[in-house]
Every structure is written in structure tokens, then in C-alpha cells.
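Protein modeling request. Please complete all fields; requests missing the sequence field cannot be processed.
Requester role: graduate student
Desired output: 3D structure, C-alpha cell encoding
Chains: 1
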Amino acid sequence: MPKQLKALGLIPTRLNSNRLPQKALLDIHGLPLIIHTYKRAKLSKALEDVVICCDDKKILDIAKKYKANSILTSKFHLNGTERIYEGYINLKKKYDLIVDIQGDEPLVSPYHIDDVVHYHKKNFESDIILPTLKTPFFSNTNVVKVIFNKKKKVLYLSRADIPYQFKKQNKEIYKHLSIISFKPESLKKFVESSQSKLEITEDIELLRALDIGLSIKTIILSGDSFSVDVFEDYEKAKVKMLKDKYYKIYK
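Delivered output (251 residues):
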């Protein structure tokens, strides 16, 4: 393992999301959603740099307006993981870890990013680190639930209510937190592999990683985070932002 591992933060975003069109540009108290994500990622102490990987000049122009590092990528990627790989290749710089920070999480915690990077450095044998948040049980297909074993190895991800409540009621679940750390060679292997049956069925891209044999570990984090998938999430983000401690630093 290298003595000093360097981590790059890449933020994938696209203009025309299905459930909430042009959500990257939605205003949250004077700043576009994507800029909130970028500014918060820049507060991380574990990242060497942060770059927005977008698919449209509208987002690129907004990034330039706010002096955010950005790169234009293809409109034809199937998911954010493929988008950040193109961004990484185009940057032509070598890093030991590539951290995917989803562009639709305007309340992402920089400390969560730091925790994920530090954990991957200590568990460098793992291809991917996928953090989770323990939360009281609720049913929502927009939220990806994660099943892992005692060694924190991820076994499966699903939009369904898993594990199934056959004999005992689930009082809590572990939900997918949208900060994902990849080793570059693992990211390359993922992108060069075709979509898997499970990935297509569940619409969860990391199921492809499990299908092709990549090892995924989780770290359980505390706090809260959520993605803006629908209009109700956008309204929730506007309310929470006003009370957020990081927003007060960069607004």
C-alpha cells in the first residue's frame, strides 16, 4: 500500500433527471443545489481536490460562475459511476482513491467524506467503501438499503424492505449514503463491465460491482443525509439548510 494515499472527490451530475428535472440548478437560499454539494465537499480535509463532472453546458456555466472546478462529460452515461470515470480519465492525474460524491446531496457532511476516505486507507484491500447510516425503519423505494455481515462486508443492496420481516419486525435499517470511495483500478473494472441483471432489475449500479466480484465494505456513520430525488426532498432541504452548521461557513 502506498505511504501517502491521495484522494480525489468527483461529483457526478446531469441536467435532466427523471423525477426532478434540472434539480442540479434548483435554488436553495441563493445557491444552486450542485454548488452547495461542491462547497461542502471542498470543506473536506481528506480530499486533494474536488471536481464537478456534468453532462450539460448549463451546469458547466454555473460551476464557472461560482469558480467551481468542473469538467464536461458525455450525455450518454448510464450512471454517475461511469460519469466520474470519464472525468477521472480526462483529468490525466493519478490518485489512489476516487471518491464519488453524489451531486444531489446538498447537505452532505464533509466529515462523512473524511471518515470514508480514512476508513478506505485503513482497509485498502477493499475495492469499494460504501458508508451507511442507521435509521429507524421506514418504507421508501427511493432509499437503497444495505445488508452486510459482521466484518462489514456488503452482501446486497435493495430498494425493497430488506431484510424481510418474517419472524421479527425491523426497528431500523441501514441506508446507502451517497459517498462512495473506489480504488481507480476497481472503478475501471466496473465501467468496463456490462450492466448486470440485478443492477437493471433494482436500478442500483453498485449491484454490478457485487456481480463482477468486487469487494465492498461499509462504515456505519452517524448523523443524517438524504438525496433530493423528488420535490418534497427539495422542500425538506430548504428547511434543513437554514439550520445547518456547514452552510453558515460557506454561504
